Amino acid sequence: MIDPAVMQTLDQRMTKTILALKEELSAVRTGRASTNLLDRIVVQAYGSETPLNQVATLNVPEPRLITIQPWDKKLIKAIEKGILESDLGLNPSNDGVLIRVPLPELNEERRKELVKMVQKTGEQTKVALRNVRREAMEMYKKQEKNKEISQDDLRHLEKVVQEHTDQRVKEVDEIVAHKEADVMRV
After folding, report:
1. CA nearest to 21, candidates 175, 158, 185, 149
2. Quick one: 95 and 128 in the same domain?
3. What is the pLDDT of residues 162-176, one digit of tens each?
4. What residue numbers bound the domain in which 163 lies?
């Protein structure tokens, strides 16, 4: 008998892999400001490292500006330090109440570097999807070896798994292409 749990697990793991790709790419800078850019920044607050969005309100009032309003004014220096220490290359400024993070215009060279990084992330995601596919195929081969499924079922299931993987790889290509277009848009 064919076990549907393998396909469910395959689908869940591939979905999680694609969600991880989307999350990773949301932190990649494009021509417009986005609060997602600061999602990975942690701030030394109250004796522990805390995500920035848990100690402040983030807004995008203009296409090239992010504003950060800390809930506790004492955290302004810690937030500025967190942004400066990040690999984003941003220079925040504050007026004692509000932190402004202007986003400089991306030059052509930096855009191309970002596109390469996006492509690399996409390729890593495809490798992860193929690993999930390989594990599912191994599970089906094991079932066939234990005489739980027939060889015909195995061939059919391998074909279904491959089609599912191809569909997910195509989805990754579309996500990467969309992000590349966003990065290259001036």
Report:
1. 175
2. no
3. 999 999 999 999 999
4. 4-26+107-184
